[in-house]
Design goal:
By secondary structure, the chain is an alpha+beta fold. 26% of the residues lie in helices and 43% in strands. Strands 1-2-5-6-7 form a five-stranded mixed barrel. Strand 5 and strand 6 form a beta hairpin. The protein starts with 7 loop residues before the first strand and ends in a 7-residue tail after the last helix.
Length: 147
């Protein structure tokens, strides 16, 4: 599909589901391993790893938000495809569940003296919970308190 000048097509896929397939996107930002990358129409072709965080895109001056974890991004021509391990539309995230997951992960990290704690797994759980909370904050347009 060829996009109008100044627009892109954005597709977000998981191994199980097509989360988003949207034309007319004017900008997209997504997490990479060490930060965030922004893509505008006319971006050079590239492939990148996707980190854990929030995808923010704009279509018709309206922003949309997804929480993603892991995967690969391909930028080619006027399209951006994110093949992610896990993705969630911010509007479907249960904020209380995300806050509980954050608290559990922080408790595991605080108990790091214990040999039974898998620190990398606890850090990844914390990052996912924080990304969910951030996605909800962005979607709702207000700051959400985390303990």
């Amino acid at each position: 599909m060829v996009e109008a000048k100044g627009n892109m097509r954005v597709v977000i896929l998981t191994p199980y589901k097509r989360l988003l397939d949207l034309s007319g996107v004017t900008e997209i930002y997504f997490p990479i391993d060490h930060g965030t990358i922004g893509v505008l129409p006319g971006h050079a072709p590239m492939v990148s790893a996707v980190g854990t965080g929030v995808v923010v895109y704009t279509q018709n001056e309206v922003a949309g938000f997804y929480k993603v974890s892991g995967g690969v991004a391909e930028i080619s021509g006027s399209s951006v495809t994110l093949l992610v391990d896990v993705g969630e539309d911010a509007s479907t995230i249960d904020l209380d569940r995300a806050k509980n997951a954050l608290e559990r992960a922080q408790n595991r990290l605080a108990a790091k003296a214990s040999d039974s704690i898998d620190m990398k797994r606890a850090e990844a759980a914390r990052a996912r919970a924080l990304a969910r909370i951030e996605a909800v904050e962005l979607h709702s347009g207000k700051s959400v308190q985390t303990k």
